[in-house]
Structure formats: C-alpha cells, structure tokens
Amino acid sequence: MNSGKMVFSQLMDCIPWWQFNNIVEQYQGNHKVKHFSCNEHFRAMAFAQFTYRRSLRDVEAAFKAIGKKAYHMGIRCRIAKSTLADANEQRDWRIYADFAQVLISKARALYADEPLDIEWDGNIYAIDATTIDLCLSVFPWAKFRKAKAAVKLHTKINLRGNIPEFIHISDGKLNDVNALDFIVPEPEAFYLFDRAYTDFQRLYSFTKVNASFVSLLKKNILWKRRYSHHVDKTSGVLSDQTIILTGKDTPVYYPEPLRRIHYYSEEIQKHLVFVTNNFSLPAIVVAKLYKMRWKVELFFKWIKQNLRIKTFFGCNPNAVKVQIWIAICAYLIVAIVRKEQEIVQPMSEILQVLGITQLEKKPIFELFKGDLSQNQNDQLCNQLTLFDL
C-alpha cells in the first residue's frame, strides 16, 4: 500500500475515488469550477478532521506551512480561507452524504463477522440522537429554543464494528421518535431504543417485518398482564410478563402481545422496565442487549471529542452538513483502515496517532506495531523517581 507516500495519502488511497467522481458528476459538483475541485475539497476537509483544525484560518495556516507537500496530498491549488468557505457554503452537501453511504457499505462488509457480546445471527442496531449546540446569533436558521440554536444527529449504529449506517441531520426541534419514519426496518435484526422512541404505531412496523426491538417502557403506558413467566431473581430479573396494551388508541396501533421485563441493575443501582416483541430470548439476555445500547452514546462522545463538529467552518445549513458528513467519512476511513490493516488498537488511539503523523512517510501498520501501552510503561520505568515509597 505504501511506496514512500505520506500517511494522509495512504488514507486517501483507501477511498474508491471512481465512485466519488460518479457522485460528483451526478450532482454536477465541478460545474464551472476551474480550481479547487470537489476531490480537493474533500481532501482538505478530511485533513482538517484528522489534524484537529479549529477554524478556516487554522486550515489556511496549516496548508501554508505544508507548502509544496500539498501537491503530493492530491491538492493542486493554494488553500485560502475564502476558497474553503465558498466551497463549504456552495458545494452540494449530498455529494458527501452519498459518498458516506459508499464508505458505510465498504465498512459494513469488512465488519460483517465482528463478534457481538451475545449470540445473535443477525445485526443489532442502536438508534439514538445527539444534539450539537450552536450560537443562535450565528446560526439563526437552526433555532432550537428561545435563546439557543442546535442541530441534531439522528443515528443508527450497527454494533458489529460500531458503524453508523444511518444518519439524518435536522434542526434541534425534530423529535427523536420522528426519525423512525426515515428508517426501513431490516428483517431478523434487533433494534435497541431509548424511552423517547416508545411510539407503538411506529414500533409495530418493526414487528410486521419480523424485526425485534427492546426499549424502556414509559410509566404512563397502560397495559394488562396476560401471563407471568418463571424468572431467576438472582440474575437481577424480577419479573417477566406477557402483556397487552390497554390505552385508548394503543391496542389499535399495536394489536399484538408484548413482553414486559422488570430488571434491577446492581451496576447502576436502578430498576429498569423493558418492553420487547421478542419472546424467544431469555430475559437476562434482553437486559444485556439493552445495555449494549450505550455503545451509540459512546460513539457520539467519541466523534464529538475526536472530530471537528463542535466548531463549524461555515454558518449556512449547507456548510454545516458538509462538515458533518466529511467528519463521518473520516471516521469510516479510519474504521476501514483499522480492519484492512488488522490494527488492534481502539479507534480513539488510532485517530490520535494519525493526527500527529499525517505528513510522515511510513506505512500505517508500522505506526501501530507492538503494544503501545507496554512501551509507555517501559518508558516510565526508565524515569527517575522523585520519592521512594
């Protein structure tokens, strides 16, 4: 893969550029563009993501320092603040959204055999949303509350590799549960929801295609017990019941029985009540499944900490979406390289290493040889101690 190329160039070589060019042609992204093509725009923004650039001025200064090396990164023109700002505001964000789907398909194939925490033949998805706060005076189009602006990322994560297979970007006002209208349920898959997604009319669409789900049950939902099943209370499962909904409209929206599981988590010292349409798995396994939902929270935390989506390089909706989708592409590129290069380090550590080695001419896999944590311990052992305890 490496022939004296910079680390950044090696990362870009993982990209199916012919598909990217087809998407650019579909949206006429390079129409009347003489300099700074969509290809170069993507590379410049991806470099900003990998190296933690904080602003357009920061990106401009970085490429000014790089100088002629930018040519070997696939960027032929000078990166000016105004050039990048215009591209972010004018280039169709759907180019990068569609290309993210190409990378998602590639990553999904690579992680198809990734083991899960439980035995399950199909895919397991966690669905949730996160809010990115914005300044209302700068982003008036994204009004969220009276004195606050925000955009929201509605995301479906495939827990085989933590690959984001669906992302919908909206203003902060869109209710989380409304995002289910954009998701096509996959047969034989298992979906993990938070309490905010308890809408039985929408959840019934998952049951009709033989997909399973588990969610926290809202306290105001009316139900009636049909059967009680034997449970082992030492496992934390306090009850396992077959129920029917008895509210005003819920029996019409969801006419079939459901399963209600009462579980006490010693880890967080809290009682949790789950509702699921799966009657075959043991109750304790359903509880463990719901615990896996927190991986989507970890994904949101990771991407906010390690990618540039908290500070935006443009103020209009197109610029915000361009930056978010290229950030998602950067995450997927790292995930693809991690699998192809058989790197064992976690994603956060990989991105930290790549962030300071973008211009080095060294094969990527050599950057992660050996146990880095062990090397750090060895270095610490060689240091003189100030105090003898």
Provide a quick synopsis of the model.
The protein has 389 residues and is of the alpha+beta class. It is 39% helix and 19% strand. It has 14 helices and 10 strands.
Describe the protein.
Residues 121-333 form the Transposase IS4-like domain. One of its GO terms (molecular function) is DNA binding. InterPro entries: DUF4372 (IPR025399), RNaseH-like_sf (IPR012337), Transpos_IS4 (IPR047952), Transposase_11 (IPR002559). Residues 372-389 have low confidence and may be disordered. Helix content is 39%, strand content 19%. It starts with 6 loop residues before the first helix and ends in an 8-residue tail after the last helix. The chain has helices at 7-13, 17-26, 38-50, 56-66, 69-72, 81-90, 93-110, 200-208, 250-253, 283-291, 294-306, 317-340, 347-355, 372-381; strands at residues 124-134, 143-145, 148-158, 163-171, 190-192, 212-216, 223-229, 237-245, 258-265, 270-276. The radius of gyration is 24 Å and the shape is elongated. The chain has 14 helices and ten strands. The longest helix has 24 residues, at 317-340. With 389 residues, the chain is of the alpha+beta class. Strands 1, 2, 3, 4, 5, 6, 7, 8, 9 and 10 form a ten-stranded mixed sheet that branches. A hairpin with a 2-residue loop joins strand 2 (143-145) and strand 3 (148-158).
